[in-house]
Each structure stands twice: as C-alpha cells, then as structure tokens.
Amino acid sequence: MNRTDSIRRGLRRLYPRELLWNKYKLTGAQRLVMIVWGLALSQIASPVGSSIYFLITQVSYQVRYRSTVTTLWYLKDTWDRLPVHIQNLLGQHWFASPSAPLWWVDARHDTRHVLIGLIGILLVRSLTIGFKENPRPRASTLRIVLSPFAVLAIGTAVAAALIAFFAKVFPAVLRIGFVSGSTWLTEWLGKDSWQLTLIGVVAGLAAKWAFDPVADTFQLMSIENQLAAGDTERWWWHWFYPPNYRARFAYLKASGHEPQRHGKAMGVALIMSAPVFLFLLGFGIWLVYFGPASTAG
Q1: Per-residue model confidence (pLDDT) at position 11
Q2: Whose C-alpha in 22, 54, 99, 160 is 20 to 30 A from the C-alpha of 230?
Q3: Nearest Cα residue to 147 out of 158, 155, 159
Q4: 104, 163 in Cβ contact below 8 A?
Q5: Dist. CA 104–CA 82, nearest whole Å
Q6: Alpha-carbon gap, residue 177 to 43, rounded angstroms
Q7: Reported confidence tier of residue 55, pLDDT bands at 50, 70, 90
Q8: What pairs with residue 61 in β-bridges?
Q9: Does pTM surpass 0.70?
C-alpha cells in the first residue's frame, strides 16, 4: 500500500458521516434486544393470522333493514369448495362430486399456517428494519398503495411452488412434527404446521424487495414527524420503540437531517388501526386456544 492510499483511507475514516454512522449503528447488545423483539412479535402472528383467515373466509357479513337481510360478504362456500367453483366457471368436469376434493380440504387449512408465517416475518421486518449507512430511497405513494398486492402475489407464488415441490419431491418432510395436547406446540411444531409456517416465512422474505422500502419509509416518516415537532428521546421510548428506531432517530438528529412534514395522516391512521389490531389479536387468541382453530389443526 502506497502513502497516497493510506492517506485516502485515513480521510475516509475521519469523514463525519461515517463517524456518525459508527457512533449510532447498533451494538451487539442492541442486536440481541432486536432478536427478543422479533421473537415476541412472531408469537403475535399466529392469532392475528388466524383472525384474518377466519374473518375473511368463514364469516358472513350481513345488514338487516326491517325484514330484508342483505349479505355483504360471505366466502365460506366459495372458499371451502374453490376447485369446484373454478371448474364450473371454466365449464370443465374435473370432479365427479360437487363436494370439495379431499386434497383441497387439507390445502385450505394449510393456507392459515402459510399466512401465519407470512404475517410473522412482515411484522418482524416492519418494526425491526434497520437503517443503512446508504439510506434506501423513499417509497412513492403508488408503491405504498401497490405493495400489499405485490407482497400477496409474490408470497402466494413462492408458497405454492414450495408446497408443490415438497409434496412431489420430499413428501416425508411434510409429515414430520410433534403430536401433543398442547395447542402452542401443535400450532408451531405439529405436523403440517411448522413446515407450512416456515414456507410462509420464506415467501415473505422473497417479497422483501416490495415490502422493505415501504416499511423503511413509514419508519422515516414517523421519525421525521418527531424531529419536526422538536421531540427528544424520553425514558419510556425504551419500552415502546425498538433500538433500531431510537438509533435512527439519534443519527438523523445528530446529522442535521432536515425532516419533511407529513401532516397528521400517519398519526390518525395509527390511532384508527390500533383498536383493529388489538381486536384481531384478542379474537385470534380466543380462536386459536379456545375456539374452532384450537381443534382444527
């Protein structure tokens, strides 16, 4: 190494932006805390995913006006006999009976576990996403709106491909699991549970290019609102914000970042979504541990 290269490397080490990055990037202890956050969030995925699956596919939503009852949403029969409905729509005669084929009876329940894995990894990534030395570009409004559809499309394609692969090539893998009277063990480690949940996690990771910029943008918007309001870190932040959020807040504040004002839309959206999320969590806990899903497998 010549002297010029040595000087250049020394200057790079002294560059203020890199010094700030080295000061505020996560330490080993903070990364351990992030793992704990991730494990805690993963446990939320099971009841929330079960709630979403049950409320979308199994519940009838109706309005009554005097003696007239109007059904707004009811997908139980459509979902429970989906292959039969598809054959009828296409004018085919694949199945001799109008009842759902046996393979679909198992597959439609498998969807719940895949959904749990997908929601779990998205929950973890949404709150534990780390800020980078070279920041991600902000997600546009169009990308934010389209991201749920992109994640769902990518996740469905990857999950279907993996399930088909294991069913054809390694079917024995799908039969490995614990048999237990514990609902928690059955939910996470039972036969056809952990494999499908893991497939959902992989499907979510495959869709991260569509999800990560959106999660990063929402985190940045939240921090910028606090910076614009002149907020400083409080002691209770340690209980409500993970280390990556606090580190990014401190980094942007120390670097003199000029925040964009995003109005009150995010705050309103969070306030409105909080009770919905709590309902999904509470209803899902009842559903998984005390209701129909506790015996459905």
Answers
A1: 46
A2: 22
A3: 155
A4: no
A5: 8
A6: 19
A7: very high
A8: 73
A9: yes
